[in-house]
């Protein structure tokens, strides 16, 4: 499995472009509608919230602790 090294999101007229790059420098671009991007954001937020202690060493309810 490839490891994500970098990502960026750019805005186009009617949608967004997700720019993904792996550790080997291989790049892939994906067009995404505003609804799709919102669904990705919601899914990541839910996943991180459910696993916050495991990933960040933070107990549930400790808002912002352990983050940058």
Protein described:
It is built from two helices and three strands. It has 68 residues and is of the alpha+beta class. It has one domain (4-54). It has a three-stranded antiparallel sheet. The longest helix has 17 residues, at 34-50. The protein is flat and about 40 Å long. The relative contact order is 0.13. The mean pLDDT is 88.
Keywords:
3 strands, 32% helix, three-stranded antiparallel beta sheet, alpha+beta, 2 helices, flat, 68 residues
Shape verdict: flat
> Domains counted in the coordinates: how many?
1
Radius of gyration: 15 Å
**What does the main sheet amount to?**
3 strands, antiparallel
How many runs of DSSP E, i.e. beta strands?
Answer: 3
Distance between the termini: 27 Å
Oligomer: single chain
Mean pLDDT value:
88
Widest sheet, order of strands: 1-2-3
Secondary structure class reads: alpha+beta
The proportion of residues forming helix, as a percent range, comes to 25-40%
Identify low-pLDDT runs.
none
Number of helices: 2
**What is the succession of H and E elements?**
EEEHH
Which strand-content bin applies to the residues? 25-35%
Summarize the structure.
Helix content is 32%, strand content 31%.
Topology:
Blueprint: E1 4-11, E2 16-22, E3 27-32, H1 34-50, H2 52-56
Antiparallel strand pairs: 1-2, 2-3
